[in-house]
Amino acid sequence: MASKTPKLPPARFVRSVLKSFMQDSGLEPRLFGPHLRITNAQEGRVDFELDIQPHHTILHGGTIASMVDLGGSLAVASNGLYATGVSTDLNVTYIGSGGKVGDKLRATAVLDKIGKTLAYTTVTFYNDKGEMTARGSHTKYVRAAWNPDLPLWHAPEGAPVAEEEPEGNGEAKSS
């Protein structure tokens, strides 16, 4: 079936999925708001960062766990799926301090494998010194996310779509 929406490049598509989370979810806009940004996205990988705010305190472990959940979902989206499934397993290992108010926490989410039923992702976190501070894994049930009426890399009609980024500003080419 032909889609009524345009095919989006990976970075814009993933930013559109994040925009829908920020618009439709209860958690992401309250916990992260405008302080979380996707810095790069390509098929199978998403880089993002969070400016640590006073309400994050000394980067609470629950904030990092929420970022594993969000990062895993964005990694699934980096495969072209607008719906990203539901969590079946989430694990976080805390290695060191993520930072304090005013610092940036950088993260990379990787789609390790996706099948018809499950998707497996890994998210790693680094502080301002470049030290790994945490790593997480996130498994998602994606069977219902495969929509034959919505081609990959297309947002559903009426869904929020992120603005285009200037060239060289996160629009990584897919491999």
From TrEMBL:
Pfam families: 4HBT (PF03061)
Region of interest: Disordered: 154-175
Gene3D superfamilies: Hotdog Thioesterase
Sequence ranges assigned to domain Thioesterase in this UniProt record: 57-131
SUPFAM superfamilies, alphabetized: Thioesterase/thiol ester dehydrase-isomerase (SSF54637)
GO molecular function: fatty acyl-CoA hydrolase activity
Signal sequence range: none
Source organism superkingdom: Eukaryota
Family, as annotated: Belongs to the thioesterase PaaI family.
Official protein name in the record: Thioesterase domain-containing protein
Classification lineage: Eukaryota, Fungi, Dikarya, Ascomycota, Pezizomycotina
